[in-house]
Specification:
With about 260 residues, the chain is α/β, with parallel strands linked by helices. About 25% of the residues lie in helices and about 20% in strands. It has a five-stranded parallel sheet with strand order 3-2-4-1-5, with helices on both faces. A five-stranded mixed sheet has the order 6-7-10-8-9, with helices on both faces.
Length: about 260
């Protein structure tokens, strides 16, 4: 018996990984966060599977379901939104599973940051502009370590992906403007991967007004950085015709080098 923490992605069922889908198809017990994971993710679940929406349950109640499945020798598909390693609340579940000697495995998923960049048609790491992406959140009910406050992170000038902060957007703008400049591009991406997804593009100077007008108050990711509106960047070293490397030597072999997971 194994508990599989599965990242369901941002909401689009087509962004569920093949591995995650296979586990859902064969799992006799499925626990999913119904407040964030759409029912369509369960479309291929076994008709006989025991499916529970954990949105109204607390941690103890969720663990009780897992322990019960463990006692019966039944695998559990525990489905979270996005990638479970990022604000997935799996750490506390894993700690309890380890104490109970219940096996588990984490299946990664597409992050909201990746999906938002795809929706915008943007690369978040442009050579000569930014080579670092910081995924963070704004302090709310869950406090932030002092050394991770937004002002400290802003000093790096990196591309920022700020979760759970749209209701405090005015404070975020206040914190970032001295470091990024009022003209720095910002994208607020709402319900990425869902049929009603939308995004607002602006700058630190005007994004608050735009978001208030759109009445976006939750389920939004904030992206900040020059990469969102820059055509002035360096082309990559990897594909530079003047640069040779192990996969593109100066003298090209008859058979290109290939990568294999296992030795032939």
């Amino acid at each position: 018996m194994t508990v599989y923490f599965i990242g369901a992605g941002p909401g689009d069922p087509d962004l569920l990984t093949i591995k995650g889908q296979r586990i859902i198809q064969r799992s006799p017990v499925i626990l999913y966060a119904g407040s964030l994971v759409p029912e369509e993710i369960l479309a291929q679940a076994n008709a006989a599977a025991e499916i529970t929406d954990t949105a109204p349950l607390n941690l103890d109640e969720i663990l009780e379901l897992i322990v019960n499945a463990h006692a019966r020798g039944l695998d559990v598909a525990r489905i979270h939104s996005g990638d479970p390693s990022i604000y997935g609340a799996i750490g506390e579940q894993i700690r309890r599973l380890q104490a109970l000697a219940i096996p588990f495995e984490v299946i990664p998923g597409v992050t909201s940051t990746s999906a938002a960049a795809a929706m915008l048609g943007k690369e978040l790491t442009l050579s000569g502009v930014s080579q670092t992406v910081i995924l963070t959140r704004y302090a709310g009910k869950t406090p932030m370590p002092e050394q991770e406050n937004l002002v400290s992170l802003a000093q790096h000038g990196a591309t920022l992906a700020i979760h759970l902060g749209v209701t405090r957007l005015h404070q975020i703008v206040e914190d970032l403007t001295p470091h990024y400049g009022s003209d720095c591009p910002v994208a607020v991406c709402y319900r990425v991967g869902w049929p009603d997804q939308q995004h607002i593009l602006g700058t630190l100077a005007d994004i608050v007004e735009q978001v208030r007008a759109a009445k976006i108050t939750r389920t939004a990711l904030i992206l900040v950085g020059r990469v969102l509106a820059s055509d002035d960047f360096n082309e990559s070293y990897l594909y530079d015709a003047a640069q040779a490397h192990i996969y593109r030597p100066k003298v090209k072999p008859a058979t290109p080098r290939k990568v294999r997971r296992t030795q032939a």
